[in-house]
Amino acid sequence: MSAADLPASSAEHPPTRMLHGLRPLSAWLLRRRWPVRVHGAEHLPARGGAILAANHVGAIDGPLLAIFAPRPVHALTKQEMFSGRLGGFLRGAGQVPLDRFHPDPAAIRSCLRVVRDGGVVGIFPEGTRGAGRLDRFHHGAAYLALVTGAPVVPVTMIGTRPPGGGSNALPPRGEPIDLVLGEAWRTAQQPWPRTREHVAATSVLLRGHMLSEQDGALSRTRRSLPGPLPAGQSEDDPDTGLVEHPREL
């Protein structure tokens, strides 16, 4: 599929200079504290637009995805992070602000521009940090896949929060961190209009694929997820997408 086959986007491509330039140094610095291991890099196409969809368990998931993914990633990041110096840095590093509580056409246009230009978008379908088992699954990744037809590569983040640790807890120094990329999932590009029912059904299929790949990642690494956040530490999150009661881990 060529860029000519994708819907037009009026957004400018997010900045790339810092995103590309800082990755080697950032990776070196982080690996001085934690052994970061990337598995399944071959599942992300070497070129062309793509979507990385990751579970979300710890505070460092976003930076790790942007720094250690096989290709630079423009990750959707909650707009609350885009204030002060950190906000300037995130924008300069090509990350995309997202309003989680209201429809955000600007974020969609930015993601579409990235995919049209052959780049990689990163999405955390759970929306907020938690157990990482996709018990809440927002529709953004499925919607973008329907709009673009781009492959969605699942990512399982393992070891980014200690077992039972709080929302901002970091893993102990020297504790390994695994990023496991699974087999790409695809759906046919769907021209406008896209019904809510179609998007929801696509989310069900994508979530099922991600859970299957996550089970495989945990089995291969012989590791487990950290479990739910302590009581009272879950962030507010819009009541949208697919929701299941948390399962026993």
Give the number of DSSP strands: 9
DSSP strand content: 15-25%
CATH architecture: 3-Layer(aba) Sandwich
* CATH superfamily (homologous) name: Glycerol-3-phosphate (1)-acyltransferase
Number of helices: 6
Provide the domain count.
Answer: 1
* SSE ordering: HEEHEHEHEEHEEHE
User: Structural class, from helix and strand content?
Assistant: alpha/beta
Widest sheet: strand ordering: 1-8-7-2-5-3-4
- Largest sheet composition: 7 strands, mixed
Radius of gyration, taken over Cα atoms and rounded to an integer in Å: 17 Å
Q: Calculate the mean pLDDT score and round it.
A: 89
Assign a percent range to the helix content. Answer: 25-40%
- The CATH class is identified as Alpha Beta
What is the CATH topology assignment?
A: Glycerol-3-phosphate (1)-acyltransferase
Assembly state (oligomeric): single chain
How would you sum up the global shape? globular
Topology:
Elements: H1 17-33, E1 36-39, E2 50-54, H2 61-68, E3 73-78, H3 84-92, E4 96-98, H4 105-116, E5 120-123, E6 136-137, H5 140-148, E7 152-158, E8 177-181, H6 196-221, E9 242-243
Parallel strand pairs: 1-8, 2-5, 2-7, 3-4, 3-5
Antiparallel strand pairs: 6-9, 7-8
Helix pairs in contact: 1-2, 5-6
